[in-house]
What does this fold into?
Amino acid sequence: MQNNINASEIDTIVSLILKSARTEAEVGRVLNIIKLFLEQYYFVETGEKTFEENVKRVKDVENVTETDLTLLRQIHQYKSSSFKQESFYKALDDLAKALYSLPRVTLHVPIRLDGVSRERIGAWVQTNISPTVLVSIRVNPLLVAGCGIGWNSQYMEFSMDEKIKNNKDQLFSLLPKL
Amino acid sequence: MQTLFLPTVIVLSSFIFGLITLTAYSLWHDEKNRHKNTSVTNPDKDNLQDSEEKAQQIIHQAQEEARRILAEAELAGIRSVASKKVNTLDLEKSYSQDLSALTAEAVKELTLASTEMKNRYEQFVSESENIISYHISQNQARLDNHITQTIEANEKAFQTFLAIQQKKLDEAFAKEISHVEALVGSYYKKRIDLVDTQIVDLITQTTKITIGKTLDFSQHTDIILESLEEAKSTGFFKHTDNAK
It folds into this structure.
């Protein structure tokens, strides 16, 4: 009989993941790291392996941060109960469903942001809106600067393009002076 | 009638003559037989001779009488024929006269009738001409009147139609002018908006080129965070129905 992961363990692991991954893309990356870690542990027969040896093999595939390592240590503790060999895929599916059902704020940004920028924005969102909110980032170069924000089926734009349109008359008043 | 009278007289005379001859012959025959029966004796020979002579005499007399009667009959017939001939001539003459008179009368009557008929026909023709002429003039007048009324009605209807069409034309023209003005205004506004849009695009592109070359990730992130702060200040994130 399989031992499924319980709700309490899911909430704990979700909280840990949200500290490492604040955007949808990051969540996918972290879930893939956990899957690789567990597959390494259960299915690659290279003798008795330490935690560090398994992490090292994961690092060969994915970029693993310190926060990710903290998360993997927690998973390592749960592997004997919730992430057993015969049930960890099911546990990962339950975890993914729980993560992707979280509320999310969609940001339309003009450029593809780097990790630091995503981290800053995610931290702001989890601090100012809710700790259990995911950020979905879409790139729209027409916005020039700023962003468009989708939240709870509503959309507001704070882009440079929108600001120029809103201040069109003021801009036109400057034209004769040019 | 005269033509029948003469043969009748002749036949009657011949009949009488035959009757007399037959009577005389009968008497003679009887006397002869009586004499034959008595010839045995001489004394009767003389009587027989006398008788025969008498008989001859009687026959002779009878023949004479018959001739006389016949002659008289012929004379009577001739007279009658002559008389009838005279009457026939008179009758023919009278008939001719009467026929001439009748013919003349008939001609006269026919002439009168013809004249009367001609007069009546001429009168009828004249009256017919007058009646027809009267009716023609009446119909002409009625037709003229009807045509005049029709023309007046048509002119009135045409004037009304023209007035209605003029009104419709004016309205359509005004509507079209208004529509064209609206189109021109709309077109002008669209062109102005297009120019404005192009100017905005120009500014946007210029800004984009400028910002794209000048802003780094950190500065973009700063602007995004400022936008998030601005959204928060407007209460945009108060709608947190889906937030846990």
